[in-house]
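Quick one: Lipoprotein from Candidatus Eisenbergiella merdavium, C-alpha cells please.
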Amino acid sequence: MKRIWALLLGVVLSVSLSACAENSLDQMYIEEAQLTEEEKNIAELLGLNQEYRLYDFSLDDTVKSMQINTYELIDGEWHIVAGGGGQAFEDSEGRLALGFDNVADGLRIAVQSENNNGSTSYFKESKNDITGMGYATSVLSDKQEIVYDQEIPLVIQIITSKNEVHSYVVDYFFQPEEYEKYDYEYVYAITVLFSQKPVSELAN
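--- reply ---
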C-alpha cells in the first residue's frame, strides 16, 4: 500500500507542478492546492480511505531548507513527536503533500519541486489508547504568508472520547491553552517551516 501511495502521489504532484510556475506571485505564500478534476480523481486513490492534504508554496531564491514537524499537546505545551531535522530545499516553488488517517499513528510526507522529488513516512505503535475515540481535524485552508524561520500550522487534530468537540482554526496552534480548557485526551499538530539557513543550522 505504501508503494501504491507513493507512485500515485508522484503522478498528482507532477501533473500539477508545471501550473504553479505559470502563476508565480511576488509574495511568499503557502496555500491549499487547487486541483483539476483529473487530479482529484487520482488523489482519491492515494491512501485508500486515507486523509490527504496538498499545498502549493512560493518562495524567493534565498531559501535553503524546510522542516516539517509533528507535535503532541502535553500539559499545555507542544512536544515534538517527529521531525526536528529538516531537509535541504532551494527551489522557489513546490508542492507539499501530507497523508494520514490519525496523526497518532503516523504521517506520509512528499515534496516535489523543480530539483526535489521525494517522500518520507513514519509509523509507530502509539502508546496512547485511542480505541473507540472520534477525531476532528482542522487544516490550513486560506493562503498564508511565509516568513522565514516561523512555523506555519497546517493541521490540528483532536482525538477524544467526548461527544462534543470545539474545533479551532489552525492558528490556535499558537494558543495551546485553548485546547486545555476542554480536557481532550489527545491533540496533535503538523507544521512547516522554511528557512534561509542550511539544515545544519536549523534548531532541533
